[in-house]
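Entry 14. Structure prediction run on the chain below.
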Amino acid sequence: MIRDITLGQYYQTESLIHRLDPRVKLAGTLIYVITLFFYKNFVGYALAIFFLATVIRLSKVPFKFMVRGMKSILFLLMITVLFNLFLTPGTPVFTLWKLSITKEGTSLAVSMALRLSLLVIGSSLMTLTTTPNNLTDGMEKGLGFLKIFKVPVHEVAMMMSIALRFIPILLEETDKIMKAQMARGADFESGKLIARAKAMVPLLVPLFISAFRRANDLAMAMEARCYRGGEGRTKMKPLKYRGRDYIAYLILFLFMFGSIWLGRLTLPMLMVG
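Output returned:
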């Protein structure tokens, strides 16, 4: 389960999506996530699925590797679907004891499941095709206008990049600790929910110690290299837009306007919440 989390990992390959400017991918991810909340019918979700599938194909990231990240949110996805199925008022379709599955609840459950799945896969695609350094440069450059309001853009971008970079490292560390404790007789998979939660306590203590140690080592390394923030710093490889980036922006805006138009359509037979 730990190794199934793909957020924060980078998949090394040569593709058109990998070569895009990180600012384009950040804007694309933001636009895609926002448009997911515009859809009121399955035609809109079909457009979102087609768009995401096309981008995944162009990225050359294996689809199995992409979907593997869904295993980490499977429990949350099931809870979301069940809550919407049984707790949404409306026209009853099926009754089980005192709980009823309604037509509106079914539509809302399908809608929420699609939104959550597409959101996770779409967000993971950005980190899988963008190195941490490029992600930091893209955030800093794209949010540069906030400097007018005295927002420390460089520091914020650096913190977000480090946080994303540490996700796969901490997951790998967690996996090592779990295997070491299981070799000593620890059991993390059997028993009731409360028992399994208590079994995680011995895992969290060494994990937190390791995380603080890594953070301290990183801070000392940055100080040893005279890091003093973003003021006056230059880039070895400054970001520059190319023709493919402008074409990608055009496609993104067309997708956004198409999503807004589809979201305003009223299709009674396909309503999903």
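Residues 268-273 have pLDDT under 50 and may be disordered.
Filed with the rest of this week's runs.
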